Structure formats: structure tokens, C-alpha cells
Batch of 3 targets.
Target 1
Amino acid sequence: MGVIRFIKSAYSIIEAILAWIENAFASWLVPTLARLVFAGALLGYFWASAYTKLGEGLFGFLSLSVGAYVQIFPLAMERVGYDPTDLSFFHTLVAVAGTWAEFILPFLIVVGLLTRLAAFGMIGFVMVQSYVDIAGHHADAKTVGAWFDRVSDAPIADQRAFWLFLLTVLALRGAGPISLDRFFTGEMFRNLFWDHRST
């Protein structure tokens, strides 16, 4: 009986300490670390990917490279002989919007502006990206991977699951206190821009 009572007491103390840590840190540390991890691991990836889609010259962000259409619409490009001028306006609109999204949404997440909306947008982006990789680029079984298989390095099933988890944390928890979201919704912003007249 003494051992069981000791184990219960030790468990209660550990739970109390962990509850205190959670109350003190989780609300701000989790979303802040999620944005830091996103910046360190994924910002460069998405921006490099978007950069490869830009056309030449100053207005390359409006007139995308042929490679952009091959990356986004591989099967449609194959059908038109890799001539993007033969694609519909819809294809062009989606390609331009997708390229801009690859620049804008990660930036918004890193600075913490419209973070929840940007995270939801990135979740959709990663899901579409994964679908295109599998159905359009015919990713092989090793690249697609599978869960519960002892191998944890498949780019789609394994790595992107972590991306989606990270983005889900941001979509549900927001950006945290060190963010533009908090600035624009917080007391500091109200004090700077709202008239506080005494009555």
C-alpha cells in the first residue's frame, strides 16, 4: 500500500508541475516555435519553388515560365505539347495564383499576419501539391511512402504529414504573442491609433 501511495503522490506532483509548465508556456511558446520551425524548415523551400516558376524580366511574376505550368499542370502541358499558350485562362489563373501563394502565404506565417488564414491556405496548397505529385508527376511508391511502415523519410506521406501538422497547429492556435496579428488586435495597437478621451 505504501508503494502505491508513493507512486500516486509522485504522479500527482509530476502532473502538477507539467500543468504549471503548460499554463505558463503553451499558449505563447507552441505557436511561436511553430512559426520558427516553419521559417527554418519550409520558408526557403517554398520560396525557392516559387522562384523557379517566375518568367523572365521585371514582370516575370505575371508571365510565368514554362516550367511553372509543367510543375502545376503536368498532364495538361503534355496534352498541348508543352506550349502554355494553348492552355485555358483558368490554367493561367491557377498557375499565377499558386505561384503568388507560394511567396505570400509563407511570408504571412513567418511575420504572423493573418496567420490562421495563411495556415489554412498552406494546408490546401500542400494537399494540392501532393495530389499533383502523385497523379500528375506519377511519384513512385518510395516517394509517396506509407504510414506505419518503419520508414520515415518518404517526401509525401511522412514529411508532408509533419508539414500539415505544423500548419494545423498554426491554424488552430494562431501566431502567438510575437506577431503582427497580436500587434493589430492587441492593446498596443489600440493605444497607438484609437482616441482615448477621458470622460
Target 2
Amino acid sequence: MTVFVIIAFLVILGIVLYGEYQKDLDRKRQLVEEDKERERQRASYRAKQETEPPTPSPTARKFITRKVSAPPVERPLYAEDCLTSEQEKQAIHVTNKGVPNIEFKTWQNRLVPTVPEGIVNPHSRSLYKFGIFIFDVHGVYYHEQAAREATNLPGESAKLVREPNNPHDPNAIAIYDTNEVVPLGYVNKQNAKRLAPRLDAGEDFVAFFTAVGDKANEDFYSQVVVMNRKLAEEIL
């Protein structure tokens, strides 16, 4: 009887383990297929990429007064679309006005920082060193409905609101659209740490949305650029 029970247990265990193995194998196959599909999409996007340079964006005044709107982004911005870090070092410099030679232009329905040589990666360290902070709005997952309904198309103004009593982060900065009903998300912690002391000191910043849409994994996202108002008036 004991032997029978042991054999039955081993058979059941084997069936369960085999079932889990098959599930794991199916998941791996699905991930491989998804990777292949993403690569096909990227190849298709690159093939369709326009050869014309990015077109100049509207002026800072239009950003500030919310007269600009654009459809959601048509495709992601890949690293290969942008200058390399070495190219950035050669291309970005301070003009005789004392500001970087960066200009925001429209590309694939998003606003991107550019220099004559090409697009500067929005996540490049070169930008924040010049006082230009571009980042994906943090926590959109928890505020997705508000973010989808917001006035946050590329070029629309954003508002930064400090939350010094936020229990999760004393440097917290909430991001609102111009309707200021509910926050769409927050500045990520790294940039909040840089910006919070300057906001608390009364520095005047301009913020506007540069991109909005759904990622490949169907998560909604929104991207914002923040800079000192005087700098914005010079480069936008």
C-alpha cells in the first residue's frame, strides 16, 4: 500500500512538474515571438523614417499659452536616431548669448532637442548639465485615466507643484496639465532632487509636454521638459 501511494505521488508530481515546464516553455516561446515582432516593427519604422530634418517647433510663447497641439507620437525615438555621446560633446556648445545651441523641433509628432548635427537623446546627461531636464512622468500607471484625459499633447504647458509634505519623498513634485484638476504623475526622484531646492528658492521654470502615447507594452506614458524661463525664452 505504501509503495502504491509513493508511486501515485511521484506520478502526480511528475504531471504537475511537466505542466509547469510546458507553461514555462510556452512563456519563453511567446517572449521570443514578441522580441521578433518588436524587431520587425523597428525595422519597418526605420524603413519608413522620413529623410527630412526635424522641423522647427513653435515659439516659447506658444508653449506657455497652450496654443500648440500635436497628435500622439507615431513611433518611439530610438538611440540610433540620436547623436552618440561623443558626437554630442563635439556638437553642443554655448553660444555668444551664454546658452546652449539647442533647439526644440518637431519629429514624428514629438518635440525633440536638436543641434545642427542631429537629435540629442532626451535622456542625455548633456542636457541637464545645461539646465534642461527631460523625463518620463513618473507614476502615470496610478494616474492613467487622468493622464489620458489631460491636455498634455506635445507642446502643451505643464505645471509643477511642490509637495514638501509628501510622505514618500520630501522632494516630490507633482505634474499637472493647465486644468490643474488632478496630478498626472510626478517628477522622477533623481530630477526632483535637482529641481526641488530651486523651486523652493522661487526659481521660475517653464515646463511643457514633449511626447505622449502608448508604449509597445500598452502602458501609457507622458514626457515633459523643464527649464528655467529665461533659458526657455532664449532657445525656444
Target 3
Amino acid sequence: MALPNNHSPPWPPRYTAVAARVFGYRVRPTILYAPQMQGRGAAVNLFVYVLRSDSGFAPNPFGGLCTLATCKPAVRRTARRGDWVAGLGAARRVGAGRLVYAMRIAEVLPLSQYCADSRFAIKQPSVEAPWWRRLGDNIYFIDEPGQWRQRRGRHGPKQMPRDLSGRNALVGDEFYYFGRDAPELPDRLRHIIKQGPGHRRVRDSTTVEAFVSWLRQTFATGVTGEPWERRIREGA
């Protein structure tokens, strides 16, 4: 079986470790960066927000990389390589104060580059593909006349202006996606909890380092839970 993109198997990364043991697939190692450094010594930020919806679309943690290419336009315009993004649960869904996902930003790509990069072809939604492929966030592209177009996906024309206003797609190679199995933040980190719309930008290096250390010392990287809105059905 041919492997797409950096030898990542063509299924959600939650199955990667098992496949590596059973089938001998090579798994690309995660590169860890010191949380206090970014670019030329700039401080690392942590962007925290509440996910009103957790379907596996935004963020999209499948295909070996976690991406945020729709929703949260202010975060996508502002975050830089080396920053962290954390999505918390909503009270009426997975629960307030629970961590649905976190990722370290390895790349900040203009949407025009994201849609044209062959590495992210696997994130183009396909209605005839397995369920996780239907949730692809690579839904925008530029046609020959130079106009933005939208593939059939989770967002429609109504969301297009807001999505495009974010300008960039954020790509994370070190990420933790828990979905419906979202753990509670420990007491020492509960002050970062964001409530309501918008996002919180945490600049305190001690807090950012504590958050990253908690993740790395406690959890495995990749996908360890299904999206909250995932519906188990035969053939999905």
C-alpha cells in the first residue's frame, strides 16, 4: 500500500501506533521545540478558545497533521510558528474546562498555498470516502480566473467570507486531539480557561511552559478520541 505524505498511513493517526507495530509502517518522529523560543527568540504564545462544535472539521486532526484552515480567523491571522493553540470544550457538549485538542504550530501557510500543496490533498473532503475524509478542511481553492471557490464540505457559502478573512491555515505536527475523551485541565492551569466567544492569548512564559510540560508528560501525541459529534453508524 502506498503511503501518503511523510509515510503517514491513510487513516486517522489514532491508529498509527498499532499499524506501525503490526504492519511495519514507519512513523515520522515528532520534533519537540523549547516552548520559550519562537523564530528569532520571540516569546511563544498560547491561544485558547472554546469549540462550539467538535466534528473533526475545525480543527482537522486527520491525515497525520492537525490543521486549522477554517473558523477562528483572528487566531489564524495572528498566530505564528512555534505558538500553541488549545481548544476547550463547551459546557453543553464535552464540558467546560476540558481540553479537546492542542497543537504546536509548525507552519503558517496562506490559504492559497495550503489549497495547492499536495501534502494536504488528503484533507480535501470526499463524500464517498471514509467518515474522517468527509471532514476535510481543505475546502477552498482558486480557479483559473483567480477567483476563490469552495468544495463541498462542512462549510457553505455563508461561512466563506469569514473563513477567507483568516488568510492562513495553521499546521501542527505535534498535536494532542482528545475529542469526546477530553481531559480536565489541572488546577494549576485552570486560569487559562476561556469562556464565551473570541480567544484568550496567553503570553506568560511560565504558564505556557507549564501547559506544554503537562501535555508532553501526560499524554501521547496524535488522535486518542473521536470527535464529540461523531455518530457511530454501520459503514461509517
